[in-house]
Amino acid sequence: MKRLFPAPWLSLALWALWLLLNLSLSAGNLLLGAALAILAPLMFAPLRPLPVRIRRPGVILKLFFLVGRDVVMSNIAVALGVLRAGSKPPRSRFVKIPLDLRDANGLAALSMITTVVPGTIWSELALDRSVLLLHVFDLDDDAQFIEHFKTAYERPLMEIFE
Amino acid sequence: MNSVGELSLWIEIPVAVLLVLSSLFALCGAIGLLRLKEFFQRMHPPALASTLGAWGVALASIVYFSALKSTPVLHAWLIPILLSITVPVTTLLLARTSLFRKRMAGEDVPAEVSSGGRSENGN
């Protein structure tokens, strides 16, 4: 079982993806999707040496909705910032954030979050993963932003991945 | 597809509002790209189109076609999911390349955050 499904969650996601894309639950599509779900993780196994261990589904759900809310707020903030750019230029600058999260998969998730939130851009990660350089579109208070970043995103990711 | 006329107004209004709102966000993104001057500042607005812009259109499509076919038609939701997985790759590449070039040109950007050695992404 372990040999056939090295990444059971990935297999399940691929299977669901295939069925959703085809919008059908016919026997043929169920079989084709299952073939994809079994073959793809086996083929990609040599590329990903780090197995993902995901815990605390409740935290994942909470993080999901928090990020969703932040994305909407940040969208509105950036849109207003763009429209007002003539009279009141946005205070864009780089912020150095000390990181406690070390897990590579967790960091990948963190980079996805920063990219999906329009107001932040993941710019550089230190080699030892201790510092993150982030570009922020409109920043008022550095310390407050870092505090929000660490409590809202980093801590839940540490709970999920570490 | 069937004609639009057979859907109730209660479906058409939210769908229209969603479409107009999300296209306004995408328009703001384009205006931002045009009007802002500095490179890193200009990287922010296009994200409006790939987040709320895309989410709104996907949601509108789900509502409209689910109502039209009287069953949940959810596959449009895959677009925002796949976008949020793939967009970080290009954003990261652009940001890293620009930082590298600006440092080479001696422009006003922060120095490398890792002490010593080449800088790389950890993921």
From TrEMBL, chain A:
TM regions (residue ranges): 63-83
Membrane topology, as annotated: Multi-pass membrane protein
InterPro entries attached to this UniProt entry: Cation_antiport_E
Pfam family name, one: MNHE
Subcellular location: Cell membrane
NCBIfam families for the chain: PRK08965.1-4
UniProt protein name: Na+/H+ antiporter subunit E
Lineage of producing organism: Bacteria, Pseudomonadati, Pseudomonadota, Gammaproteobacteria, Pseudomonadales
Automatic annotation (TrEMBL), chain B:
Keyword Membrane attached: yes
Transmembrane segments: 13-34, 46-68, 74-95
InterPro entries tied to this protein: PhaG_MnhG_YufB (IPR005133)
UniProt-listed Pfam families: PhaG_MnhG_YufB (PF03334)
Keywords carried by this UniProt record: Membrane, Transmembrane, Transmembrane helix
Protein name per UniProt: Na+/H+ antiporter subunit G
Source lineage: Bacteria, Pseudomonadati, Pseudomonadota, Gammaproteobacteria, Pseudomonadales
